[in-house]
Design brief:
EC number: 6.1.1.1
CATH architecture of the largest domain: 3-Layer(aba) Sandwich
GO molecular function: tyrosine-tRNA ligase activity
Number of helices: 21
Subcellular location: Cytoplasm
Distance between the termini: 45 Å
Shape: elongated
Family: Belongs to the class-I aminoacyl-tRNA synthetase family. TyrS type 1 subfamily.
Strand order of the largest sheet: 1-6-5-2-3-4
Catalytic activity: tRNA(Tyr) + L-tyrosine + ATP = L-tyrosyl-tRNA(Tyr) + AMP + diphosphate + H(+)
Number of strands: 15
């Protein structure tokens, strides 16, 4: 693995800060931590080894994980040595959720997801140089551990009274469903991770979301009790929107980093739709722009919000980071073409299909030709055939960006993009996607 990626090679921390700790604080990436003064001193000194764990509870990472991935990268750019941990064993157990017990996945599924997540994590780190990243899997040190050894050597260092005070555990204990011994034991396994990484790599810092603080401190306490060493942890804040809603979902669906689960087009549109009140904070957390650059964009939001320059820069930066610059440009070109600024024929089918998910999308038989009147009505761009006829007469009906003036004109697979898709538009901005599908 190398730093050949143009996105990685372009990344840098902001030199206007005296040290990386001060930059992390300014970017809003520190919600809670172990002793701040000692941690700042450690990060400003010689390179240290640090880690973050990612459990394979799905086939892909999502935007919440991107916060951790970028924190790992910022610390690496400061000269420190990252360990990317994918939880082959903790993924078999499952971190306790706020509401109910997890459904355990099979070992085969977890193994597949371990590989998938490991590849994703690797994309955000450099594996070259003196502080090259390394990937680890906690199944390597737990797979052969017997239950007796686990209880004797590790379990004896944990006090049940302390464990049940952890926020999520306490919440689950007070619920009707309660919590299983399996999920209750998760924090011990995560503590064991830190102990092993400290022993094998001299790891002295773990990062994670602030909702994981109980698990993070399980590790710091275990290292202190067993090794007599004081190690560190950083809990990042949970990202929320200015209106208090949960960040990282679009239409109720998670924004995944895997393009097969969330298309680059949908991903780009998510960032482009960032509210003015949130965009400066998103630039701080999810991009490597300097504070002077972010201040300029914040000023533009205040003086010329209609230009949405900050949102466009945010969407470009994060989509390029996750999907690459070439794919991001394709998405931008597709967006322009859809609104009449380019050739629709140049849009690949995957992107066009993704566009359909963002619009009102209807499926009609490919065996029939469909009049412009039917297309407008069935795509719900108008409420009636008479309104559709007025739209055509007034010059407001378009199919694939071509103005339609004949209300009798029909469309089928021969006129469709990639033989399947018709982009139907009323006026400048009211659009729908009609897909022509053959009956099976």
């Amino acid at each position: 693995m190398s730093t050949a990626s143009p996105v990685l090679s372009r990344q840098a921390n902001d030199p206007s800060f005296p040290n990386i700790w001060q930059e992390l604080k300014w970017r809003g990436l520190v919600h809670v931590s172990t002793d701040e003064a000692t941690l700042e001193e450690a990060l400003a000194g010689d390179p240290i080894t640090y880690y973050c764990g990612f459990d394979p509870t799905a086939a892909s990472l999502h935007l919440g994980h991107l916060v951790q991935l970028l924190l790992l990268r910022r610390l690496q750019l400061a000269g420190h040595k990252p360990l990317g941990l994918v939880g082959g064993s903790t993924g078999l157990i499952g971190d306790p959720r706020q509401t109910s017990e997890r459904v355990l996945n099979t070992k085969e599924v977890v193994s597949e997801w371990v590989e998938s997540l490991g590849n994703q994590v690797s994309n955000y780190l450099s594996f070259d140089g003196d502080n090259a990243a390394r990937m680890v899997n906690n199944l390597d040190w737990t797979g052969g551990l017997s239950a007796l050894d686990f209880l004797r050597d590790i379990g004896k260092h944990f006090r049940v009274g302390t464990m049940i005070k952890k926020e999520i555990v306490a919440k689950r204990l007070n619920s009707e469903e309660g919590i299983s011994y399996t999920e209750f034991s998760y924090q011990i396994l995560q503590g064991l991770d830190y102990l092993n990484l400290h022993r094998d790599y001299d790891c002295v810092l773990q990062t994670g979301g602030s909702d994981q603080w109980g698990n993070l401190t399980s590790g710091t306490e275990l290292v202190r009790k067993v090794e007599g060493q004081h190690v560190h942890a950083i809990g990042t804040p949970l990202i929320t929107n200015a209106d208090g809603t949960k960040f990282g979902k679009s239409e109720g669906n998670a924004i995944w980093l895997n393009p097969e689960m969330c298309s680059p087009y949908t991903f780009y549109q998510f960032w482009l739709n960032t509210a003015d009140a949130d965009v400066a904070d998103r630039l701080k957390v999810f991009t490597f722009l300097t504070r002077d650059e972010i201040a300029e964009y914040q000023q533009k939001v205040e003086t010329e919000p209609f230009r949405r320059e900050a949102q466009r820069r945010l969407a470009w930066e994060v989509t390029s980071l996750v999907h690459g610059e070439e794919q991001t440009q394709k998405v931008i070109d597709a967006s322009a073409a859809i609104f009449g600024g380019g050739e629709l024929e140049g849009i690949d089918e995957d992107t066009l299909t993704a566009v359909g998910t963002e619009l009102n999308h209807v499926v009609l038989p490919a065996t029939d030709d469909h009049s412009i009147i039917d297309l407008l009505v069935k795509s719900e761009l108008v409420g009636s055939k008479s309104e559709a006829r007025r739209t055509v007469k007034d010059g407001g009906a378009y199919v694939n960006n071509v103005k339609i003036t004949d209300e009798a004109q029909s469309f089928g697979s021969n006129q469709a993009l990639h033989g399947r898709h018709l982009l139907v538009r009323r006026g400048k901005k009211n659009m729908a996607m009609v897909s022509l599908e053959s009956e099976v």
